[in-house]
Amino acid sequence: MEILLIDGHPAAARLSSHVLDMYQAALPSDAKVTRIAVRDLAFDPVLHHAYAKRTEWEDDLHSFAGLLDACDHLVIAFPMWWGSEPAPLKGLIDRVFLPGFTFAYHDNDQWWDRLMEGRSADVIATMDTPPFFLRLMYGDAIVKRWKRQVLGFCGFKPVRFLSLGPVKGGAADKRMPQWRSRVEKLARSIWVAEPAKKQLRLDRFLTR
């Protein structure tokens, strides 16, 4: 199984990186793992022309798109800031998750094709907000967005979301044994809903 790990924290050696360390260590020995950090990629995070015309990819985005296309399972870890992911990670999604590559709208109706079918994903977000407060006060907005409007929209299935919080005031150290157990459980229970549906899309997208 091809597994792609993405560290979405703008700074190195933070909790997101540590969480990915735990996840990676718990993966089966036969997994083929590739790990990248968004902060190490050189790219403009702004999709300047929206979908009106193609904004050419930088070399690092070409490489990332190839890894995304090839993966069977995607793992993204990041801190939640203002109810969302950090701007560089959002920019990566904007620049790479494009029509014709990760999804395709229909010409004659309002529906679309999920071109990333045959892949699954785990999203792990660290936060100062207690997860129960995130659910009760904010309706798990970030969870629903990633599961339904981002990864699920493109066909990843299942998409599992793990909220780790609160982290401030030394709370992360106290909760780390429990969090480690939950992270390792995710890594040991990966499954892809419909692996036979996986198709490589990148070459076709680049030659349109």
Short description:
With 208 residues, this protein is an alpha/beta fold. The protein has helices at 15-25, 59-70, 87-96, 131-138, 141-154, 171-188, 202-206; strands at 2-7, 32-37, 73-79, 103-105, 112-114, 120-126, 159-164.
Q: Which structural class do the helices and strands define?
A: alpha/beta
Q: Which strand-content bin applies to the residues?
A: 15-25%
Averaging pLDDT over every residue, what do you get? 96
Q: Tell me the series of helices and strands, N- to C-terminal.
A: EHEHEHEEEHHEHH
Descriptive tags:
208 residues; alpha/beta; 5-stranded parallel β-sheet; two-stranded antiparallel sheet; 7 helices; 18% strand; globular
Architecture overview:
Helix 1 packs parallel to helix 6. It is built from seven helices and seven strands; from the N terminus they run E-H-E-H-E-H-E-E-E-H-H-E-H-H. The chain has a five-stranded parallel β-sheet with strand order 2-1-3-6-7, sandwiched between helices. The chain is 38% helix and 18% strand. The chain is globular and about 50 Å long. With 208 residues, the chain is an alpha/beta fold. Strand 1, helix 1 and strand 2 form a beta-alpha-beta unit. The mean pLDDT is 96.
SSE topology:
Blueprint: E1 2-7, H1 15-25, E2 32-37, H2 59-70, E3 73-79, H3 87-96, E4 103-105, E5 112-114, E6 120-126, H4 131-138, H5 141-154, E7 159-164, H6 171-188, H7 202-206
Parallel strand pairs: 1-2, 1-3, 3-6, 6-7
Antiparallel strand pairs: 4-5
